UniProtKB/TrEMBL annotation:
Keyword Glycosyltransferase assigned: no
Record's signal peptide: 1-19
Domain Chitin-binding type-4, residue spans: 61-150
The entry's keywords: Signal
Protein name according to UniProt: Chitin-binding type-4 domain-containing protein
This protein's record includes keyword DNA-binding: no
InterPro entries tied to this protein: Cellulose/chitin-bd_N
Amino acid sequence: MHPFAAVLVASAAVSLVYSHAVLIGPKSREGMDIGDGIKYVGNITRYAPDPSFPMCAGFPAAAPVQTYTAGSKLDIKWSVTIPHTSDPGVTISIQYQPSEEFMVLGSGIDDALTQASIQLPPNKSSTSAVLRFMWQSKDDGGFYIGCSDIVVNPSKDAVVGPSTITASIITTESPAKMAATGTSKSASTATGPAGMASVSAVVKPTLSVKSGSECTAVVVAAWLILVVSVSL
C-alpha cells in the first residue's frame, strides 16, 4: 500500500487565522480559507510529499486567475500563520492536463521565505493548468495544500521539428550524344541538411530525324533498284 494511502481528513475549512499555511499568489481555489491539513498516519519524516496525491485537497477547478508564457518565471507567494517545523519544506508542482500527474518545479523551499520564483518548462503549454503549493508540517503530521488555476501560453521561441524541403538538380547531355550512346542520363541528386529530401530526374534521349534531302536520296535509290530488277 502506498504510504500515503491511509489518511485522516481534518476538520472543514476555517478562516486564515487557523490555516497554518495558505497559497495567496497566484490566487488559490480556496481563496482565504483552507482546511487544517490532511493528516497522514505513520511517521511522515520517512516520506517526502507525493507530487500526485492528494488532488488539491478536494477543491474543484475554477476559472484561470493568471496567464503565463512557457519558459517564463512565475512568482509564488504564501502565508504561514502558525509556524511549524517544516521538512522537507515547500513543494511547487504543476499539472498541464487532467490526465497527467503533477510535475515538480521546485522542492525543499524554506517556508519562512513566503515566496519563490519558479521557472516553467519552455516547451509545455496548457489552457487549463493547475499550479499546486504543498507544505509539510513535521509537528502535527499535516500537509497544507493550495491550488491555482492558470493558463500557460506557448513560447514564441519554442523548438519545433525540422521542416522538409524538396530540391532537385538536373544535368543533361545533348540529344545527339545520348542517341549515339543509346543511354539515358540520370540527374545528380541534391543533398541538403538533415531532414531535407532529395529528388532525382531522368532525361530521356530524343529520336534522331533524317533531313529532307537524305530522305529523297533513299527513295530514289530504292526506285532504281526496283526498275533494274524488273528489267532483268
